[in-house]
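Q: I have two molecules that I believe assemble together. Could you output structure tokens for the complex as a whole instead of separate predictions?
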Amino acid sequence: MEEIIEKLKVQLIDQLNLEDFKPSDIDADEALFDSRLGLDSIDALEIIVLLEREYGIKVLNQEDGQKIFKSVRSIAEHISANKEV
Amino acid sequence: MFSIAKYVILNSRNIIVDGEEFLKLDHSLEFKEQAKKIYQSLEIDYPKFYKMDNLSKAAFISAELLLNQHVFNCDQEKIGLFISNKASSLETDEAYYTKTFEQDIFQANPALFVYTLPNIMMGELCIRHKIKGEQSMWVSDNLNANFVSKYVNLLFNDNLLETAVIGWVDLYQDKPETMLCLLEKKEENKNLEFNEENLMALYQKLKG
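A: Yes, here they are, computed for all two components at once.
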């Protein structure tokens, strides 16, 4: 799990242009939205694209997205449970 | 009567604020890197900056320098924004097309897609500076100072606006060209009068 979390932090920083942040600045359990990270709805779309491209995972409904995108850890857990083998 | 209370010019060479050189720019850097350095030097805390396309970054930096000490003393609905440019959002349009369609497989790029309209750059300035009055974005080969000055003066004279930010914000092939002016009610013997001639003079200063 920790390996996925660290990889995900790097991917999120790159994909979402979080140029003010290093992976070590992001707590795996902190909120991604309405937080100091400043993510918005476009970033949510970018995360959906990232999950599909990098992990073959589709997020198809909004309610799932809200739970999955709560934190880096919740995304990592979703990847771990659903990643294409 | 309204006047040009302050102006900012930004191009590949330097940034000028009210006629004084504020910063010389490094030709060897891409604008994205240049913009990042300027943003950091201004010590602004606005992470959204990093997500903007280069056109919006050029506008954002110019507007920060124009409005950093400024407090609008009127309703937000009485603040206008009027910008022209030549290339619209073409730089980002091309980047979006290349990244999205000229790949082996179709790949969505939502963060790039949202900037494929110059109006988004206008929106970024409105959000940042709480501008809620009349706004227009015009695309033309050169600044039509005659039209812009008449149009904006009409809105002033009809009391639809009390102040405005106007100018030129263009960026293509990594070459930024911005000229932004803050317009306010004229104080006697102070500031440039807002008219076609003075607006064109600033535009020509930008074009160098």
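A: One point stands out. Chain A has one domain: 2-82.
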